[in-house]
Write a structure and sequence with these properties.
The chain has ten helices and 13 strands. By secondary structure, it is an alpha+beta fold. Bound molecules: adenosine-5'-diphosphate (ADP) and magnesium ion.
Amino acid sequence: MGEFGLINHLVQYFIPKVDSTIKDAGDDAAIISPPPGEHLVVTTDLLVEGVHFDLMYTPLKHLGYKAVVVNLSDVCAMNAKPTQFTVSIAVSSKYSVEALEELYSGMLAACETYGVDLVGGDTTTIANGCAISITAIGFNKPEKLSLRSGAKPNDLLVVTGDLGGAYLGLQILEREKQVFIAAPGAQPLLEGYDYVIGRQLKPEARIDVVQLLDQLEVKPTAMIDISDGLSSEIIHLAENSNCSFRIFEDKIPVSPEVQSCAKELNVDPTTCALNGGEDYELLFTIAMDDYEKIKGNPNFSVIGHATPVGEKNILETNGGGVVELKAQGWKF
Ligand code: ADP
Ligand code: MG
């Protein structure tokens, strides 16, 4: 199959469904018609084999899904609605057409889950391994977009979902990989770890939260998605907003599955949440006046508040101590 045949083969099941998609893959460029009065948001991410993913324990379908999700999550973190994406792949000759079909089946699943369209890409070869770059597009009204820079002292700091699972899932997968390397043929012991492994291999973008905030008429004063760990994202918000934060350990949402897995691996679940990363939850600030609108909603945990610039970013621990938050997330 030549390059053109391969591209046509891979994209054949992608049927555009989004109103703003005028022309999808197949021409020199895609055509998108912005919804009237809305701004276009665009983001890109490059994933490299051996750096960002390990094909020993990452099924290609999951990789395709996750590669799309991490980009949609960045669009959501602007409080925009993701609509289209392009995908560029560089693959070595060791990849079969079936392997690429698997990768694209994951991207197709993401299109269905999130109601977004694949509208183009680029395909090339590479000496070794593979690299995937996705560029995602979204829209929203200018006044609805949330930057990292709008938090003010006394704003409440809110996180969605629960944290720490993706990191623990990675630890379990790495553990089983080492067992396999030592004894090829050994069956991996993954039972009982479904939740944390799912958080690592199949994260979701919180597009539902963007819709929910709109319904609740809450506009985050600042927002970021959690790709590198809570600590490092809080520091990003603080630096961009010119404020500081104080958070409370007992408010950090950690699921029972994360509690028990952390206990088994002898790690602190709070550390997993603070420094683990890849949970792809949203972290945002709201004006205190908006608290009633989100109060009691199971999607949201208020974990702290913004304080004046110049103060340290502080975690108040369950024991009553205070610890300064440090960025220990992934550097790349
Ligand atoms: P050009 O030489 O103009 O870059 P290509 O042959 O690279 O054209 O691409 C032809 C069409 O196929 C374009 O619409 C492009 O967006 C799309 N395309 C190319 N590679 C991919 C891919 N890996 N996934 C999805 N669409 C692709
Ligand atoms: Mg091209």
